[in-house]
Amino acid sequence: MKRRPGSSATALTWCALGLVFMIILLLPVSSWAHGFAGKRFFPTTFQVDDPFISDEFSVLIDRIKGPDAKTTEIDIDYSKRILPNFGLEFHEAYVHLKNDDGSTANGWDNLGIGAKWQFLTNAEHETILSIGTDFDIGGTGAHQIADSFTTISPAFFFGKGLGDLPESVKYLRPFAVTGVVGPNFPTRSGNASIDPDTGQTVVERNPTTLTWAFSVQYSLMYLQSFVKDIGLGAPFNRMILVTEFPMETCMSADCKGKITGTVNPGVVWAGKFTEFGIAAQIPVNSRSGRAVGVLGLIHLYIDDLFPKSIGAPIFH
Hints:
By secondary structure, this protein is mainly β. The protein is built from three helices and 17 strands. About 30% of the residues are buried.
């Protein structure tokens, strides 16, 4: 049989990918509990998506004055494990806009559905790695608020604690970083409409963007429990200082190369069943906002509240 040029290279590529896949499956797994890698607990943060999959429920309140309007948003997220290391995520948001011209708009944003696979949990090095894809389903929200097209967002997620640093720098061990990197592809390149004043067709481009978001954390829980007991009492002994950097770069259309994002310094308190958090939201430029906003988080660990029923994976 005559072979096509390059077929050997293609076969080798698939063999290499298959080998990598098998290595990932054989990597040691110490814990699949929510947000844990060894001694490290990664909390749910505000706008940077978690590197782990779990059974949990969140409500995030987001209020900020953007370039053209003041936005108040209530985000609702629910994630459900199908397997111990694979699950689905559902998210929805109710949005209120107060535009600079005094007009307002309210309604639900598009329904989002995602899948995430936590393929590595390394206890010794306090590391979690995941991949996933999210679908923001166009046309499922209010027409004043939501896009009429779908956006597909594959992403790579990571979390790394510094607990493996040497004794000489032990006070750096409570530090950790988490993050997500991935493109956002709209299923429609542009929206055409008729200008009511001129009667001409106007096309608004829907650009592809790149999400690159990360958080830096310092866990007082970790400091107190695994580095040195400095005598912190409640509620400080269960607090984690978090600063997020949720950024997005436009990859196409008229906005190519332009960055939007905020810096979100805040704190979360993590109990056995719940987590609470509050953070400021500082725009990095005028395209991201015109005043400091605020974020408030209420989070429930469904897997700890109902470990033998709705909080357990469907299949083991």
